[in-house]
TrEMBL record:
This is Carboxypeptidase family protein. One of its GO terms (molecular function) is carbohydrate binding. Residues 1-28 form the signal peptide. The keyword NADP does not apply. The keyword Signal applies. Keywords: Signal. It comes from the Bacteria. InterPro entries: Carb-bd-like_fold.
Length: 136
């Protein structure tokens, strides 16, 4: 009986050592750096209106047009095409960056080609672009 008790006492330190070895292994594994993917920034919003005025009629009008936003100052070129309705309004979500925006009237619309505009789109922000083309 004394021998059985001695055997159990011997097993206790072995069991304790095994538990510590397991805990040490778990701790070492959790100290390794975890790679986290870089989150994609939220898009920004470009909104605005196109206007035309001049000529014999002194009023200001809106017009439909095809617009292009071209990413500039970037190693990855990107071009986004969108349209302004007859009310001249446009709206597009774009990734953050700097863009050159151009427009050309659609069909028989009386709008002129507007000079290019450089716009900066920020993550989660809104950039408003109001342009007027003037006819002599």
């Amino acid at each position: 009986m004394n021998r059985a008790r001695h055997g159990r006492l011997f097993l206790l330190p072995v069991a304790v050592a095994a538990v510590f070895a397991l805990l040490a292994g778990c701790t070492a594994a959790s100290n390794e750096p975890v790679s986290t993917p870089t989150p994609t920034p939220a898009p920004g919003l470009l909104v605005g209106h196109l206007y035309v005025k001049g000529g014999l009629d002194p009023k200001t009008y809106t017009y439909a047009a095809k617009l292009t936003a071209t990413a500039i100052y970037t190693s990855t070129p990107a071009v986004y095409n969108f349209e302004a309705g007859k009310d001249g309004a446009f709206r597009i979500e774009l990734p953050p960056g700097i863009y050159m925006v151009t427009s050309v009237p659609i069909g028989n619309e009386s709008g002129g080609q507007v000079d290019p505009h450089e716009v900066t789109i920020r993550s989660g922000g809104t950039y408003t672009l109001e342009t007027t083309s003037i006819h002599p």
